[in-house]
Amino acid sequence: MSKFNVYYEDTDASGRVYHANYLKFLERSRTNLIYQTIYTHEELLKKFDLIFVVKECSISFKKPAFFEDLIKVTSEIDQLSRVKIKFNQKIYRKSDLLVQASVLVIPVNSSGKISKLPNELYFFLEKLKI
């Protein structure tokens, strides 16, 4: 779980989080999940020529977050294979569910071709899977 403050720059004229900015919070939480392994994105690129890209995203907005809210984002791995990771992600303010998302991420190399997850990373992610 990751916690974030909602800043003025995240909001629209009404003080609500602009819809596209929820994707940023989801991305940050997935990155924090990767950091629970022994790697960073930079290390994955240097060592394995591996970059994660979003292939599919389905998002359901339940309630808005507002300027100066403290939100928490959960990121769970629903499905894991050597060539895809499907995340179930939720954004909360206290106990209120604000956003629910399903995000499919695939590993690619720097040329954009699908790559297989290296064994070391796959096994770490397998431990984090629900």
Could you describe the 3D structure shown?
With 130 residues, this protein is α+β, with helices and mostly antiparallel strands. The chain has one domain: Hotdog Thioesterase (Thiol Ester Dehydrase, Chain A, Roll). It is 25% helix and 38% strand. The chain contains 3 helices and 5 strands, in the order E-H-H-E-E-E-E-H. The chain has a 5-stranded antiparallel sheet. A hairpin with a 2-residue loop joins strand 3 and strand 4.
> Could you please say which CATH topology applies here?
Thiol Ester Dehydrase, Chain A
What characteristic shape results from the CA principal axes? Answer: elongated
Arithmetic mean of pLDDT: 95
Low-confidence spans: none
- CATH class categorisation: Alpha Beta
The CATH architecture comes to: Roll
Counted by DSSP, the helix tally is 3
Give the SSE string.
EHHEEEEH
Query: Helix fraction?
Result: 10-25%
Q: Order of strands across the widest beta sheet?
A: 1-3-4-5-2
Number of domains: 1
Content of β-strand: 35-45%
